[in-house]
Structures are given as structure tokens and as C-alpha cells.
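User: Hello, can you help with two protein structures?

Assistant: Certainly.
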Amino acid sequence: MDTVTTLTVLKALKKMRELTNIGVPFSITFLTYNMKTGESNGFKTVHNVQLRKGLKKNQSTKANQLIGYNAEGDNRWFNASLLFNLNEIKIKEKL
């Protein structure tokens, strides 16, 4: 049996959507980045994540980059190109 050891960003996002659609929470690790200040607080791992509706293309130029998620009732965003792990599976390609 093949074990998935890496995913592309696009495949990881697809898998996150699939898990969210069936109500299965997952964990992600990403590099934090504040676009306003240009600062990072390093890597962040979040558990019990489910995706939520994102921005529409007419709402933001970053609609394709910012991914909305909910973790334990807290609505947040992460930048897809800064995603590093999905359920401890490494992301091998950036957007």
C-alpha cells in the first residue's frame, strides 16, 4: 500500500475541502505572516480545523491566497502559499 508522504498545495486544499465536507477535522501547520506589518511569528500548528467560506474574487485581490478556516469556534485565515503540513503530511510545492 502506498503511503502519501507529500502533497502539492492544490491537492492539500482539495483534501481539506473533502474532509470539511464530511465533517472530519484536520490539523495544519503554516508559516504566519502579517501582510500589514510584514512580520512573521514563525510556524503555527492548528488542530481541529475545518475550512469555511473564503473571500470572493471581487472582495479582495488576495482571494486566491487567503484560506478561511475555523478551529474550535475561532475564525481565522492562512496564506495557502505558506502551508507546510496537513495532518503531518508535508507540502512540497508552493503556489
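That covers the first. Now for the second protein you mentioned:
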Amino acid sequence: MEIFTVVLVVLVIVFANFLHDKGKRNMAPDDENINTQKDSIMTKETENSGQENAQNTQDKQERNFHTKDFLIETLQKMNIKYEMSPDDDSRLWFEWQGGNFGIDVANDCPFIVIWFLQWNEWPLYDIDTLSRVKRIMNDVNINSGITLVYSVNESASTFNIHSKKHALFLPQIPEPEAYLRTLLGEFFAVCRYTEVELEKLKNQEEAIAQ
């Protein structure tokens, strides 16, 4: 009986030690899983850091981009001779297809303002023509990307019309020379539209008067 009791006690002690060791093993960290988690976290942090660096580089490039320099380079590739305004270094003048153009441009702004100057004029006191011109100007300003404005030349007694357009000008735009030609071509399209509409309005008024 005593031997049985001793054996039972020994078995209980051995079983208790087995359970204790097993619990410690279950509670101990899995080195392989921890390393995997570490690798995953580090990879994710590296990717995020790379994205942030790429974004910072892009932002820096955009901030350092010189719109004026890029415009001048484009004009030179188009064989367009330009002159800087003596009164404003952010404005340049040039001729293109018989028209007088000006562009307002600054190195720290991605937008340019193109002007097509005094492309038509009418006698200041020709009330009927001026009325028609103003109607067409309103129509163009509402429905197109080009804005028409007018000025009065008192000494010559003329009513002069000009047009302007705001446009984005960045090196990311494909074929910048073709892009600039398209922008300039829009001004001539508005000129032709104005002339056609003037004739239409004149004929309509004459038909009503008969």
C-alpha cells in the first residue's frame, strides 16, 4: 500500500511538471512568427517612406519649375521671335501668323495668360456696329474659353477689340509646341466667328428694316 502511494505521488509530480512545461512552451513567443511580423512591418514602413520621398521629390520639382523659362524654350523651338516687355519682365510680345500676341508668365506660376491684341477696330461713333459687337462679345465670353475685351482709342476715334485666354503650361503636357499652336489657333477661330456673326446680325437688321 505504501509503495502504491509513493508511485501515485511520483506520477502526480511528473504529470504536474509536464503540464507546467507545456504551459511555458505555449506562452513562449514564436520566434519565427515574430520575425515574420517584424519583416512585414518594416517592409510596410519602407514602402510608406518610399512613397513619401517620391511625393516630396515631385512637390519639390513642381515648386522649382520655371514656367517662363519653359515657355521661352517652347517659343524658340517654334522659331518664334519674342521680345520682353521693357516695363514688365513677366510679359513678352511676339507675332504669329500676322497677329500681335502677348503672354503674361511668371516662373512661380503654372498658368499663362495669352493676349491677342487689337485684332479688329471700328469707328467709335458707329453705334449700330458697336451694338452688334457687344452682343457677340457677350456670347463668346459666356460660351467659349476665350474672353473678349475692348478699349477705346480717343485720338483715333476707334473702338478696338482684344482677346485673352488663361491656360495651363507645364512640361507634363505632351508636345508643348503643338499645344501652344492650338491655343493660339483658338484666337483666330474666335476672330472668324465674330466676323461671320457681325455679318449675320447686320443682314438680319436690314431684313427687318425693309
